[in-house]
Amino acid sequence: MSRLAVSNLSASLGGNPVLKDIAISVSPGEFVGLIGPNGAGKSTLLRACLGLIPSSGEILLGGTDLRRMAPAELALHIAYVAQDRDIAWPITVEVLVDLGRQPHRGAFARSAIADHEAVEAALQRMDIGKLRSRRATDLSGGEKARVLIARALAQQADLLLADEPVAGLDPAHQIALMQVFRDLTRQGTSVVASMHDLGLAARWCDRLVLLESGRIVADGAPAELLTADLLRRVYGIEAYVADVAGGLIVQPTRLAQTGIEQGISRDSTA
Ligand SMILES: Nc1ncnc2c1ncn2[C@@H]1O[C@H](COP(=O)(O)OP(=O)(O)OP(=O)(O)O)[C@@H](O)[C@H]1O
């Protein structure tokens, strides 16, 4: 059975249709990359899959419509990393990551050993052990991002939805995060992450789902989906695409002619 099964999903924001007849299913242990141009609807789809915005259609989590699940139950099954990395409270990194354990215990219960281990594992996975006593509000952008991802990892949900989780991370931490996601999926967790870095998406995701103007226009294995033709049509870019022994390489090189038609200015020397 799919861990997440979405069908006929449509949603409007501010009176405008933003998601149109979306169908997507995610299996246990799958790492799905959600790609598409700015404004395509990636964040909205993730938020709809959390029940955060009104939508029509079906969103099944392990066979149950998640809109009928209580928030506390939902939090045991889905973890979410939002695109917005604002941290308002000057609490320590360790305390913030520990908030990810909240669904597993009563609000005032003492941390159990399992909670402690989950927090330690999340701190190590995101390479923020040495930041544990720092105030989260004092961290750099990339450090804050890693702390918020660690909080979601500590939740140990079987489905992780992450909105542009690599944004702001340096190359080493981007690759490390992809490795963390792959390791999690190999242990049975499902991960759906929106991404703009097509090279990382190509190399690490099991499957890519491409959104354009609120519709899914392609869904498949990276090597089948990421063709130069499709990238030109959807993103208006030329890209170097090569399937080599070490894995798929996708490197955007310049704007395509269609980029101009879409209103994107182009540096003719590029
Ligand atoms: N609250 C809102 N009211 C009206 N329109 C909205 C609202 N939130 C988002 N939108 C619109 O919905 C569309 C999809 O937005 P969404 O944030 O899901 O795109 P995205 O694919 O995640 O983009 P990006 O890559 O820029 O993060 C956009 O056109 C956006 O302007």
Automatic annotation (TrEMBL):
It comes from the Bacteria. Keywords: ATP-binding, Nucleotide-binding, Translocase, Transport. Belongs to the ABC transporter superfamily. This is ABC transporter ATP-binding protein. The lineage of its organism: Bacteria, Pseudomonadati, Pseudomonadota, Alphaproteobacteria, Hyphomicrobiales. GO terms for molecular function: ATP binding; ATP hydrolysis activity. SMART domains: AAA. Part of the ABC transporter complex HmuTUV involved in hemin import. Responsible for energy coupling to the transport system. Residues 4-238 form the ABC transporter domain.
